[in-house]
Specification:
alpha/beta, Rossmann fold, Serine Threonine Protein Phosphatase 5, Tetratricopeptide repeat, DNA Cyclobutane Dipyrimidine Photolyase, subunit A, domain 3, 19 helices, 47% helix, globular, binds flavin-adenine dinucleotide
Length: 457
């Protein structure tokens, strides 16, 4: 019987999975393979929170495959070596995988193609698995990518979506292929205590509940920090336990201004991917340089540590940083504010902040993280690169009752209402519990340093 290998990467699901469906076509046997890539581990990208979420995803994928008569094959090592070894053991003539626009994935794909072709096997790479619109599909007249979101979104919205695919009823896996035990989160230490559970079933449950109950008010409430009224689907999109194509279809079917605003947000994900695919260097270098001479890490060490630990003396910044430590996830409004505070108010290089986020975020993703950091730092695609967010004003606007700050900064629990955002005024000082720090810098001082550095003063 003919055999195909499906290499799972950032697409850890059975629903709407074009490589799996293509591999099983014509009643072929399928080897569903996941390789724990030692290159990812060496690059320091396999941090604890994401490793734990990944472990949940692999266990769940294995369960889903077993319900369909199969199982997941897990290997550790170099992806090319492992795929070739498994393909040879299974005598597979086809290998299917999802496209990924990153430079790392491109190199991996090319190496894999060459190695497999040398052995007489064919690699099939499928797009619209990890993105709605593949990078490079919609472009402006005179460039290989869009640098501005609004015109990109217009073209993205006009793009015709393929229909989502059903999960296969059965996945017959040859029994002679050895596998490691899928990893387990129980064996990991140092996880964020409030880390979400991973896996396709969990993702689908969350998606269904979100589209039924949450998305309706998204346009009005997505910036309300205390309400926590966003989907929290980002880790599922990162690991591919949900299909972005299916999610857009289902959100559009739900309809209304909430669903429209939500779909627009999903387009940001593809937007950053098409920027990074065209400019892979933007993962580490300024997309648009502003001539910054950032403070050195040595000089700013104390400020950086205060920021990381959530003790800058600015309650909203501290609340958001503490949320990330506790959950491995942070609300988008918190990410915008904490990134603005580090890069502009403290004038620290965006790469320092991006590195810290990637160490903790369960949805930590090179395209989304680096390009959002650049957007906030003003070295990316923001058309207002010098805007600075004021943590007190942001607090009054997006946490008007102060409930979000009180949830994460217990030292301020004695302050009522919006006064929690200004603990150091003489009126409020007495209600602040011991241990909450004074501000690391005055906002005016920070603003002046930034504006001078950018040549605006
Ligand atoms: P929702 O508001 O429910 O949005 C739905 C989905 O749309 C998200 O899950 C996400 O896939 C996508 N999305 C929303 N906003 C953005 C955006 N600004 N850019 C790209 N995609 C978006 N997102 C990541 O997935 N990984 C990261 O590493 C990451 N790092 C960030 C760093 C900074 C400094 C900033 C400002 C934003 C970052 N984001 C990142 C984007 C955004 O904050 C998260 O996607 C969002 O908060 C996830 O929560 P949610 O799923 O509830 O989002």
């Amino acid at each position: 019987m003919s055999v195909s290998v499906v290499l799972f990467t950032g697409d850890l699901r059975l629903h709407d999975h074009p490589p799996l469906c293509a591999a099983a076509e014509g009643g072929r046997q399928v080897v569903p393979l996941f390789v724990r890539d030692t290159a990812v581990e060496r690059a320091g990208f396999a941090v604890t929170n994401r490793t734990a979420f990944l472990a949940d995803c692999l266990r769940d994928l294995d369960v889903g495959l077993r319900e369909r008569g199969g199982r997941l094959i897990v290997r550790t090592g170099d992806v090319v070596d492992q795929v070739c070894a498994v393909a040879a053991a299974a005598d597979a003539d086809e290998i299917h995988m999802a496209a990924d626009g990153s430079a790392f994935a491109h190199r991996r794909e090319e190496r894999l193609r060459r190695a497999l072709e040398g052995e007489g096997r064919r690699l099939h790479v499928h797009d619209t698995v990890t993105t709605v619109v593949p990078p490079g599909t919609v472009t402006p007249a005179a460039s290989d990518h869009f640098a501005v979101f609004t015109p990109y979104f217009r073209r993205w919205s006009e793009h015709r979506l393929r229909e989502p695919l059903r999960a296969p009823r059965s996945v017959p896996v040859p029994d002679r292929i050895p596998s490691e035990e899928p990893p387990s989160r129980a064996r990991l230490t140092g996880l964020a205590p409030g880390l979400a559970a991973g896996g396709e079933r969990e993702g689908r449950k969350r998606m269904t509940a979100w589209l039924r109950d949450g998305v309706l008010d998204y346009a009005d409430r997505h910036d309300d920090l205390a309400a926590d009224a966003t989907s929290r689907l980002s880790p599922h999109l990162h690991f591919g336990t949900l299909s972005p194509v299916e999610l857009v279809h289902r959100a559009r079917r739900t309809g209304g201004p909430g669903a429209e605003a939500f779909v627009r947000q999903l387009a940001w994900r593809d937007f950053h991917r098409q920027v990074l695919a065209a400019r892979p260097g933007a993962a580490t270098a300024d997309y648009r340089t502003r001539g910054d001479h950032w403070r050195s890490e040595d000089e700013a060490r104390g400020d950086i540590e205060a920021w990381q630990e959530g003790r800058t003396g600015y309650p909203l910044v501290d609340a958001a940083m503490r949320q990330m430590r506790h959950e491995g996830w942070m609300h988008n409004r918190g990410r915008l504010l904490t990134a603005s505070f580090l890069t502009k108010t403290l004038y620290v290089d965006w790469r320092v902040g991006a590195r810290h986020f990637l160490r903790l975020l369960v949805d930590g993703d090179v395209a989304n993280n680096q390009l959002n950091w650049q957007w906030v730092a003003g070295t990316g695609t923001d058309s207002r690169p010098h805007r600075v967010l004021n943590p007190v004003a942001q607090g009054r606007r997006y946490d008007p009752d102060g409930a979000y700050v009180r949830r994460w900064v217990p030292e301020l629990a004695g302050l009522r209402g919006p006064s929690v955002h200004e603990p150091w005024t003489s009126r409020n000082r007495d209600a602040v519990a011991a241990g909450y720090p004074e501000p690391v810098i005055g906002l005016r001082e920070g603003l002046e340093r930034f504006e001078r550095a950018r040549g605006l003063l």
